[in-house]
């Protein structure tokens, strides 16, 4: 079975003040931590970035730049799906350093349950850690032409399967997979959480 994973790393990191992809996280940069968790489990990796020249050293990853620059996460998602060679696609953010492949494999097992298979935790939806069917591309074109920038903004037009928190907990008891890093405070908290995780693993 051909499995495609799309990593969105095209944001401007304005709240962070520097490129999140290269922030140290444990023994490697944050983006590499995301890639290393996904790579063994997927055949085709696509990185959506507006600075491909900074990632030329990445092996076995296709680099694509936004087809619709400035259109936010929805534009990045559209670009990734357009480049995909498979029908179903895991989509994650490059700033999700605690991704757990067991959780991702579980989401993948539900890929045929909707146009979108998206986790729903007690905190929020996780549209940038979800499964997308490439057949939604025409709907995405309509949404982008209407000025939509949010991924969730197009959900009313699609068949969305929501994965409940109780279904997710067996694979990621602390739901750390959905912890992304947007601000310096997020980064400090994530580093603190990393320290706890590493202590528990020793």
User: What Rg is obtained from the alpha carbons, in whole angstroms?
Assistant: 16 Å
Q: Which regions have little confidence, pLDDT < 50, spanning 5+ residues?
A: none
Global shape? globular
Which bin fits the share of residues in helices? 25-40%
Mean pLDDT equals 90
Biggest sheet statistics: 7 strands, mixed
Approximate strand percentage: 15-25%
Strand order of the largest sheet: 5-4-1-6-8-7-9
Helix-strand string: EEEHEEHEHEEHEHH
How does the helix and strand content classify structurally? alpha/beta
Taking the alpha carbons of the first and last residues, their distance comes to: 35 Å
Question: Tally the helices: what do you get?
Answer: 6
Number of strands: 9
Oligomer: single chain
What are the salient characteristics of this protein?
202 residues; 6 helices
